[in-house]
Amino acid sequence: MKLHDISRPLAPGVWTWPGDTPFDCTLAWRRSQGASVNVGRVTMSLHCGTHIDAPFHFADDGPTSEHIPLAHCVGPCEVLPLERLAEATEERVLVRAGGGAPSLAQLASLAQPLKLLGTDGHSMDRMDSTTLEAHHHLWRRGAVILEELDLEGVPDGRYQLIVLPLRLDGMDAAPARAVLIG
Questions:
Q1: C-beta separation of 84 from 169 below 8 A
Q2: pTM value surpassing 0.90
Q3: CA gap 98, 81 in Å, rounded
Q4: DSSP annotation of 104
Q5: Contact call for residues 159 and 4 (beta carbons, < 8 A)
Q6: Residue 164: which pLDDT band, with cuts at 50, 70 and 90?
Q7: How does pLDDT run across 42-87, given as a tens digit for each residue?
Q8: How many CB atoms lie within 10 A of CB 21?
Q9: Checking CA distances to 17, which of 43, 45, 50, 142 falls within 20 to 30 Å?
Q10: Could you confirm whether 51 is annotated as catalytic?
Q11: pLDDT at res. 12
Q12: Is the pLDDT of residue 112 over 90?
């Protein structure tokens, strides 16, 4: 059994949407300065690094992050490149987008039910999209949207996926740790 950590590391300088809150971390308390423990502090957008978008991110009436269905985030999945997305047969699919984004036709061709679609890209939609059609399409299908995966070094194929979002109430997204087993 091989584990692939497909989460992007969080560290100062990690890519952030232009104008969004960048990732920063520091020690707020330090034993070296007299505190009894070291205590860290993190500041970041919820869209830094590997994360799951809640529908509230792109729809005011959409469910917030605590409603992300965990059952959709664990189970069989397949990894493949964007140009082969129409060949996907699993309910969970991770796409190596290569800077691209799936078209609505590619999304419509995916198996029913679709529980989760993940990408190594910054967004499920094109970077210049203001309508987020792919996000809306996936929400209507009941699929979880997983973004900013690190699929480098992961061969195409079938795996078991475990991706767990932080339990954040009322938010538009949740940072997540994603692992493939296979």
A1: no
A2: yes
A3: 8
A4: H
A5: yes
A6: very high
A7: 999 999 999 999 999 999 999 999 999 999 999 999 999 999 999 9
A8: 13
A9: 142
A10: no
A11: 95
A12: no
CATH 3.50.30.50 fits 3-8+46-181, yes or no: yes
pLDDT, position 148: 98
Rg (CA), the chain: 17
State the catalytic residue, choosing from 47, 57, 72, 137: 57
> What string of DSSP letters covers 108-128?
HTSPSS--EEEESSS-SS-TT
How far apart are the C-alpha atoms of 172 and 59, rounded to whole Å?
9
* Residue extents of the structural domains in the chain: 3-8+46-181
d(CA 17, CA 114): 27
**148: closest CA among 172, 177, 128, 112?**
177
Task: Report the greatest alpha carbon distance in the chain.
Answer: 60
